[in-house]
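Recall the central idea of this unit: under ordinary conditions, the amino acid sequence of a chain determines the structure it adopts. In this exercise we apply that idea directly, starting from the sequence alone.
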Amino acid sequence: MSDTLEYNEVYQEVKGSMNDGRLRISKQGLVFKNNKTGKVDNIQANDLGNGVWRRVAMGHGLKLHTKSGHIYKYDGFRESDFEKLSNYFKSHFHVELTEKDMCVKGWNWGTVRFGGQLLSFDIGESAAFEVPLSNVSQCTTGKNEVTLEFHQNDDAEVSLMEMRFYVPPSQEDSTDPVEAFAQNVLSKADVIQATGDAICIFRELQCLTPRGRYDIRIYPTFLHLHGKTFDYKIPYTTVLRLFLLPHKDQRQMFFVISLDPPIKQGQTRYHFLILLFSKDDDISLTLNMSEDEVEKRFEGKLTKNMSGALYELVSRVMKALINRKITVPGNFQGHSGGQCITCSYKANSGLLYPLERGFIYVHKPPVHIRFDEISSVNFARGTTTTRSFDFEIETKQGAPFTFSSIEREEYGKLFDFVNAKKLNIKNRGPKEGMKQNYDEYAGSDEDAHDAYLEMMKKEGQIREEAGNSEDDSGDETDESFNPGEEEEEVAEEYDSKASGSSGSENEEGSEEEEEKKPAKKPKIVKEKKPRKKKEGKKAKDPAAPKRPLSAYMLWLNANREKIKSENPGISITELSKKAGEIWKTLSKDKKEEWDQEAEEAKKKYEKSLKEYKESGAAEAFQQEAPKKKKESKAEKKSSASKNAAPKSPVKQTGNESFKSKEFVSSDESSSEDSGEEKKPKPKKQEKSKSKKKGSDEDMEEEEEIASTPPSSEASGSASASGSEDE
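Accordingly, the structure predicted from this sequence is:
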């Protein structure tokens, strides 16, 4: 017999995954090398307990129990290998391989046996299946039921999530069989139990997924979410990525934890844990560890006593414990200045964040897509309106993601970002075709829509004006226009076919013509609404004491020049932002010093204010302030009247053309009646220029009037007929 046995096509079963490799058996023990990962497992000869030979799906298999409680399963042997292996184990390891048949009938009633770290479900004398208790992650009990949840293996194509056992009640024994079953499982299972004190606790954090408020207890190896209804234990090994994302309103922050495998509640799976924080929430945190332990474990990443914004402390603690980088948005900036885009995914509104290496959508449901997973992207028109567009992503596996209802102003920014990341844009055409198409149809929809609204508004205004003109037509008279007076301008029409009779005859004739002709839409005249006078600000007494500065402003005044010198060329807004960040990071002791100075300044202010009021200066100022205000107004009016030019009864700007179109007046009538002012009578004005120039007489008349310079007498009276000139 040879000293070693080698098998090149053997599979090792690990949490439901069959890993192919090579098995080498020697006097020192067994060595298995994984062909895929190169990992090597050793079983020492003195650690072997017993071995079982059994028929399995992939031929025959070897199951070995070690004295330390571990179980190793190797499949892929041939039936002829049993005799050789049995003799080798007996002569070198003093272990006998026993043959055992498996029950394949599929019966669901049987007996459960606990042997070491193995749960065996037997039907009769044969075993139906076995469960290594080290694979159990959680054990929960019901009325007559026990549920086992398992750790997941990423390499397994199909994973067993949970298994349920029905335990019938026992009437003979006083102990509960369900509890006895659960205790046997928990004694050997790898269940996460919250033993000992937590490193720190964050109380009542708002959680969007799963929804509710939870206390988060931070333990060395896992995270415990404690809510009113559910509890979740999240091992740090299941955390894939951390994200810190600013909300679009710039007042809140999202902290997103990506999980694989996800936490589950019933049939619901949560692949992301999303926490929402307000930027204004501050906290002081003390770790439940000594300073030496904190320094030794976290190497300066954390300190025993910390204070600052709540979201900053949570992210710092998570980063130090999980040892993962925190992903933040990159250089993308949307149309409104934010680092995200408002859109909808599966009929739910949320925010899409373009990152440096992917996209993440928050929330409901949260989606994270890496650039290396993307096959192509597409910009499509919105289904309901052209005011928005859809952004479609297709992964290499063929899964589509459509983010809809994106404002069209965001198109240019998103297109440039996708183009810079060198993603495959499916609908890219000549001259960036999609961008051109958007410009072509973008304005058409808006113009059509606005034209319709404008038409509806005009119709409403015409109806209102028509109703008002019918009611007030008999009382209106034509008056000269005086600048500065807010009066309605009367819309007049010039009738080119007026008769040569007097004003009364013309009025009668015009009334008869108006009855014959269809009613015309009157000219729309906008009414000037009187402006409301602004109330003046209350006058401030220069002798009154000034209000004290806050602690932050005192600190800023003392450190402004220092911040400028450290950041040359910084703007005012960037300076205030930088100062706010520095102020947040200041220790509690330093802030207390400035708080004391602010408190002292406040006391001095209150003291001086009291003295100011007691002296009577405040009352005297309040009495004198209205008088000074009236005097200043009177002075302004007098100065304005002196500087103003004398008012003319006729509008001077463009009055020549205005008179030639609106009014007809003769030199004779104006010279005869130079001492008297005649009341102008309204004439009809033609709508189109072609009608105004229809006759030669009218054109000559207009030229005469336009060439005559306006006099004070002629401009003061506007004749309605002009029959004498004709």
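Confidence is low (pLDDT under 50) at residues 429-450, 472-516, 645-695, 697-726.
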